[in-house]
Amino acid sequence: MTDSLPENDSPEPKPERRPKKPSRQQVYTLLIEVGRKKGDGLPKGATGAGILCFASGVDEAEAVRETVAILKEADLAPLDVTGYGTLAEREKLGDEIDAEERALMQRALDENSVIVVQMTPFFGDERKTR
After folding, report:
1. pTM
2. How far apart are CA 19 and CA 7, in angstroms?
3. Alpha carbon distance 69, 63 (integer Å)
4. Distance CA 31, CA 53 (A)
5. DSSP states of 72-128 as a string?
6. How far from 27 is each of 103, 117, 120, 122, CA to CA, in Å?
7. In this predicted model, what pLDDT tens digit does every residue of 2-17 receive, in sequence order?
8. Cβ(56)–Cβ(26) below 8 Å
9. How far apart are CA 54 and CA 86, in angstroms?
10. Which of 27, 56, 86, 114 is the most exposed place for a label (fewest CB within 10 A)?
């Protein structure tokens, strides 16, 4: 038995692709305060930490939700989030943003991700007042 080819042996035309819509994603600068939780990986004696992130989202609320979800998955205990806006908003306020920060922001945008820029542990006052 032989397979017969259709009379027109050229492949079927592919449907035309629509041009990509411009992404509505933006990158937001967020500062998240975390408390202690078993297995959080913070140094012994730390009472929590401040985490600076660049997070992509269609709006700041989405960026915050995604960041908090990721930090919870990493066994951290988010307590408070402060948003500092987009790159354009920060520039408008006069913030100086160096090339390394811009590269990390672009990476967050390209990968639709959350980038942890810095984590600073907090240590409570060890001196007890009597």
Report:
1. 0.78
2. 33
3. 10
4. 6
5. HHTT-EEEEEEEEEEHHHHHHTT----HHHHHHHHHHHHHT-EEEEEEEEEE---PP
6. 12, 13, 21, 26
7. 555 555 555 666 666 6
8. yes
9. 9
10. 86
The two three-digit tokens of residue 103, written as one number: 């590269």
Q: In sequence order, which residues have a C-beta less than 8 Å from that of residue 102 and are 6 or more positions away?
A: 87
CB contact at 8 A, 68 and 32 = yes
pLDDT digits (tens, 9 = 90+) for 76-109: 999 999 999 999 999 999 999 999 999 999 999 9
What does the block give as tokens for 48? 């929590």
Measure the CA–CA gap between 36 and 2, rounded to whole angstroms. 71
Token pair in block for residue 122:
């907090």
Tokens of 112: 């639709």
90, two tokens: 């920060």
Helical (H) or strand (E) element with 49: strand 46-57
Both structure tokens of 32: 């998240």
